Amino acid sequence: MSRRAVLAGGAVVLALAAILLLSSPSQDPYDRPALDPRGTGPEGTAALVALLRAEGATVRIGGLPRDDDDVVVQLRDTLGGDPAEDLEAWVEDGGLLVVTDQGAALAPGGDLLLQAEVRDAGPDCEVDALRDLGPVQGLAGVFPLTGSSSSCFVGTGLGGERLAAVDVRRVGSGLVAATSDPAPLTNAALDQGDDAGLAVALVAPGDDVQVRVLDPNRFLTDADDVGDGSVLGALPARGEQAVSQLVVAFLVWALVSGRRLGRPVVEELPVPLPASDLVLASGRLLDRNGDAADAAERLRRRSRRDLGTTLGLGPDPRPEELADALRAHAGVDPDLVRRALLDPVVDEAGLVATATHLDHLRRDVHR
Q: Where's the DUF4350 domain (predicted)?
């Protein structure tokens, strides 16, 4: 792999790391917004998530309801458009929605001006799981009693109206359990009175419950806003924009780098020579030079390489060492070895004789 490719890959990795860091900056959990399921401040709900998990529930934070969710907690209604319709359809299919925003679309209508002070659930509580609960901090009766829902934590308003702080009604095949205020589920109030009991009774009514807590601080009007399950879909909006810009920049760089500057230049290739023509040309050059000793040494060097490899002496043995090995080889004439490898060559006749001796020597060795 070239150094340029390594540097380019490293630059891409650094760019992606910077995108992830800048698009999802770290935040102190204590300073997160009110009702944030990850917030550890007084108005956060991280304690609620920890309590539900301690009770054996599986808690997921954010997103939209899925088929495997048993309970969905809507601390504040931040849904519109398709997400709101999807939530209602999920409830109608048999889900349990716990909503703590009395103004939410799926909460029963309540009059904020007619609030009734409530104490404990009371013997007249129509919800069995809540009947034995004591005082709960932060609740006030705002939901009118109707025959189509079950009410609990009921008090009397200023005008004598009977108003409930908890209302449970059926929507399609599912249930909507509404409380008049999310305050009892916050970190500051969860250890007061029977606030924790109220949370467990509403949100984790059984074992191994799959709970999803919707993000109370993210407004969704399009189902695509919650991500599509991919890495890009899991990034915040700024992260998606940064990755898109990185892709565009790469395409522009590739276009610029691949652009040809000027017209194509025709290059003349060398003329290929057949092997026989090359040998013939080399022979003519040697003949023109007239150096018989040099030509003989070239022939002997090639023969020494072949014979040395055959006898195990390596490709470049010394002439004397090779001659001794050949004399010791069975069936080889010592005089032939001397004439082929050691005798000086001074003229063309000696060159022809040397070539003949080398040919006979190789034939005897390979026989």
A: 40-203
Which residue shows structure tokens 């601080």? 217
Contacts of 37 (CB under 8 A, 6+ apart): 44, 45, 46, 48, 49, 61, 75, 213, 215, 216
Do 91 and 15 lie in one domain? The reply is no
Q: Number of structural domains, the chain?
A: 3
Give backbone dihedrals phi and psi of 268, rounded to 5 degrees, phi first: -85, 125
User: Would the pTM of this model clear 0.70, i.e. be above it?
Assistant: no
Q: What is the DSSP letter of 79?
A: B
Condensed to tens digits (0 to 9), the pLDDT of residues 89-136 reads 999 999 999 999 988 999 987 666 678 888 888 788 888 889 889 889
Does residue 316 contact residue 305 with C-beta atoms inside 8 Å?
Answer: yes
Using CB atoms within 10 A of its CB, is residue 125 exposed (0-12), middle (13-18) or buried (19+)? buried
Say how many C-beta atoms besides its own lie within 10 A of residue 348's C-beta.
Answer: 12
